[in-house]
Amino acid sequence: MLFLGGAGYASSLFYPDLLLYFPGVLRALGVSINQSYHLFVALCIILCYASTYICTKMVTKKRFSSMIGAIIMTLSQYHIDDIYTRSAVGEFTAFIFLPFLLYGIYDLLYEELSKPGIMAMGFAGVLLSHTNTFIMCILLYGFIVLFHYKIFYKNKKLFLKLLLTGLITLALTCFYWLPVLEQLKDSTFGLSNSWVSVKDTMREISSIFENQMPGMGIAIFLLCIPRLFTIKTKKNKKLLVYGDILLFSGIAFSLGATVLFPWERLERFVNFIQFPWRFYLLASACLSMGIAILYEIYFQNRKSREAALIAVLGIMIFSSVTNIQRTEEGYYSYSDDYYSYKPFTASVIGGEWLPEQVDSLEKVLEYSDKIVGDSGEEISFYRKKNEIHVSCKNMESSYMDVPFIYYKGYRAVSYDNEGEKIEDLKVSGEGRHGFCRVYFTGKEEGKVVIAYKGTWAQKISYFISAGAMGAVFMLSRKRRIF
């Protein structure tokens, strides 16, 4: 946000994904914004493939099934649509971390959480990428724990280990969620009055299998057919049971996006999800790894595995190509005037993280280059990086509304003619169209500087997260947690 959020930090409160620093680094090196975004997308695709391959291999110990899972995950219809149709950066980034959480379930149920760092990495990555997906993952883990409660009842140490992993994850990500909670406590945001209703966006059952957005597509379900002919044996029991958990979860999440789920009755509790078909994200991950495990069990000899790999690759490539061909919106290409052309810079879609006081985006754009006093007069100013500087010469207003959309943490300081600080001025969110309102005291002489300086909660959260990271580093040196 160039002028909407004022300081870039205000927007990063809600989108803290560390991977997003990658295009920022490219921009600093002189790469165009369009190329930076394309390279970021390519990086996410590569990391999605790599994380699925690695996590599947930790379960099956075989390259064949690892490739199967990575191919299906990367080319799954919903993943392709997230990239090329929706440009849903948060969601397709979350795809990278879901395999860590799926391996975490296996580690929890069958290896007594021997590598808690993998689970923590998954939860932290998903939380920092896409909050709605994080909530879905909590839901999945909740069902897993409840369904296998006997394991935790008999092994209290395992349950405590799970809780400790959760607490460490919370500490590591404190720099994100604590400032967000602080902002939510201080202000009311657009997400409180969702612009879309979940009951209006739930899907028909048949639409799951169609080649449309949103949908899962028929390909990923056709690849589940070998499960009908797979027999459980003493040798494959553990692996097949885990694969079944994933396949069942994938199908359940797919159906959860449809009219079979009572969205109308639960709307007031879950409307923040906006689109029930977000469940397809977790469904795609569960089915991809579940099918990979299934194929590891079903196809035993080399020739059948080679044929299966070729078939999976062909089916998924055909599916992804047809998805891209029918794409109407296309994956966004950003022009080089992204920052200078206001409608591009100010695009906030639903405006969920805009304060409720922002009554009109058109008015925000109209007044983005104006400071207005209490009587409606315009006050001259200039910008210096992320600061606004206002001259106090001949100032008669009792307050002014500056073109920074208000978030807790903005600060206004008055200086005398020699540049010495006089005092801090009161800043509130009562300005026109959600802008910061700065109140004068009558002592102003030289100038007033307005900038985003953060809050104590934000600064404390940095220390908590840094301390947790240091503790994890020391712990990892003493024993293997990854």
DSSP strand (E) fraction?
5-15%
What is the tally of beta strands? Answer: 10
Structural class: alpha+beta
- Mean of pLDDT: 88
Q: Biggest sheet: strands, sense, closure?
A: 5 strands, antiparallel
Q: Which bin fits the share of residues in helices? A: 40-55%
Shape: elongated
Q: Which spans have pLDDT < 50 for at least 5 consecutive residues?
A: 1-11
Strand order of the largest sheet: 2-1-5-9-8
What does this structure look like?
The protein is an alpha+beta fold and 482 residues long. The chain has helices at residues 8-12, 21-28, 33-60, 63-75, 77-84, 89-110, 116-129, 131-147, 149-154, 156-172, 174-186, 198-201, 219-222, 237-256, 263-270, 279-298, 302-325, 342-345, 361-366, 456-478; strands at residues 371-373, 378-379, 381-384, 387-391, 399-405, 410-415, 421-425, 427-428, 435-439, 447-452. The strands form two sheets. It has a five-stranded antiparallel beta sheet, with no helix packed on it. A hairpin with a 5-residue loop joins strand 6 (410-415) and strand 7 (421-425). Helix 6 (89-110) runs antiparallel to helix 7 and helix 6 (89-110) packs across helix 16 (279-298). The two termini are 37 Å apart. The model is unreliable at 1-11 (pLDDT under 50).
Summary keywords:
five-stranded antiparallel beta sheet; elongated; alpha+beta; 482 residues; single chain
